[in-house]
TrEMBL record:
<dbReference type="InterPro" id="IPR008538">
    <property type="entry name" value="Uma2"/>
</dbReference>
<protein>
    <recommendedName>
        <fullName>Putative restriction endonuclease domain-containing protein</fullName>
    </recommendedName>
</protein>
<feature type="domain" description="Putative restriction endonuclease">
    <location>
        <begin position="34"/>
        <end position="177"/>
    </location>
</feature>
<dbReference type="InterPro" id="IPR012296">
    <property type="entry name" value="Nuclease_put_TT1808"/>
</dbReference>
<dbReference type="InterPro" id="IPR011335">
    <property type="entry name" value="Restrct_endonuc-II-like"/>
</dbReference>
<dbReference type="Pfam" id="PF05685">
    <property type="entry name" value="Uma2"/>
</dbReference>
Length: 206
């Protein structure tokens, strides 16, 4: 190829498997619309408003938890990302996914995409259009990439009605704890103490 723009053709055909080098050079506006699965570009549909609001509010809770954890313990910096590109693996073919929310250890700002070994928790908000991918494909991929915690967030119209957490054990995710809404907070103490405020996970259409 003589240039990055030659990689994508007008007829919307992918001429060859995408590489990390090409991915880094593609326009960011394009990359935000897709993921890469084993070298193939896969369109990532824009989720509905309740889905996006659930992710944003959960990210806020994780960010508060990370700040509290860092103030108590001197064991490194933690950050939270929303729609953060995560490099699951580069070889034999590139796979880059974009979890709805990630909690990750300090990473250089210019390396992008974020490497999977830095991710502590990956969270996907499940919708009818993404349920198979979130509960099967991504669950297997995140486990293979070694991400220690995976949360699946289930919606009921404009509210979160359950969060299923999974922990990585011998290369596979096992159900750890199902979090169900009730008045007040739920405290999740692994991998850091996280307080889930259910009152912020309703009315997500607003």
């Amino acid at each position: 190829m003589s240039g990055v723009l030659e990689w994508a053709r007008a007829e919307n055909l992918q001429p060859e498997p995408i590489t990390l080098d090409v991915w880094k050079k593609l326009p960011r506006d394009f990359c935000r619309l897709v993921e890469v699965v084993n070298g193939d570009v896969v369109r990532a549909e824009t989720p509905p408003l309740p889905h996006r609001n659930a992710a944003r509010r959960l990210a806020s809770m994780l960010e508060a938890a990370a700040e509290t954890h860092m103030s108590r313990y001197n064991d490194g910096w933690l950050y939270v990302g929303v729609d953060q590109d995560v490099l699951l693996w580069e070889h034999p073919r590139l796979t880059v996914r974009r979890p709805d929310v990630v909690l990750f250890a300090c990473a250089p700002a210019d390396v992008g995409p974020l490497q999977a070994p830095r991710v502590k928790i990956a969270i996907e908000v499940v919708s009818p259009a993404t349920e198979r991918v979130d509960t099967a494909d991504k669950q297997a991929e995140y486990a293979l990439a070694g991400i220690p915690w995976y949360w699946l967030v289930y919606m009921d119209r404009d509210r979160v009605h359950a969060i299923q957490t999974h922990v990585l054990v011998l290369g596979h995710y096992r159900p750890h704890r199902r979090l169900d809404p009730f008045v007040g907070e739920t405290v999740m103490d692994m991998p850091i103490e996280i307080r889930i405020d259910w009152t912020r996970l309703i009315g997500l259409i607003l």
